[in-house]
């Protein structure tokens, strides 16, 4: 015979609402984008610039990756909402999206979105 128990019958009660399906799906895309070491390095390079943005032309040398590889990783980061891009003449400049990074930090620290 199978029995089920409510959160108050087994263990400790919930103190906050767990992630909903839509929230979890959105965050899964972000975490998947963060799951590649080269993309983490890209985010680090962008975050390290004093202006908070970097020209795509300045990413190849510190990462020792080809321009096409960098473009691929930046596309994944952009589609996950972690970076934004702005074309200026022939170059594209990238910057972090702090709100998304704050959400990631919040859910990993507390288990819920802020």
UniProtKB/TrEMBL annotation:
Positions of the HTH arsR-type domain: 19-114
SUPFAM superfamilies in the cross-refs: Winged helix' DNA-binding domain (SSF46785)
PANTHER family: ARSENICAL RESISTANCE OPERON REPRESSOR, TRANSCRIPTIONAL REGULATOR, ARSR FAMILY
Organism: Tessaracoccus rhinocerotis
Lipid metabolism as UniProt keyword: no
Tagged with keyword Transcription regulation: yes
The entry's keywords: DNA-binding, Transcription, Transcription regulation
SMART domains: HTH_ARSR
UniProt superkingdom: Bacteria
A Pfam family per the record: HTH_5
Official protein name in the record: Helix-turn-helix transcriptional regulator
Range of residues in the leader sequence: none
InterPro entries: ArsR-like_HTH, ArsR_HTH, HTH_ArsR_DNA-bd_dom, HTH_MetalResp_TranReg, WH-like_DNA-bd_sf, WH_DNA-bd_sf
CDD domains named in the record: HTH_ARSR
Gene Ontology MF terms in the entry: DNA binding; DNA-binding transcription factor activity
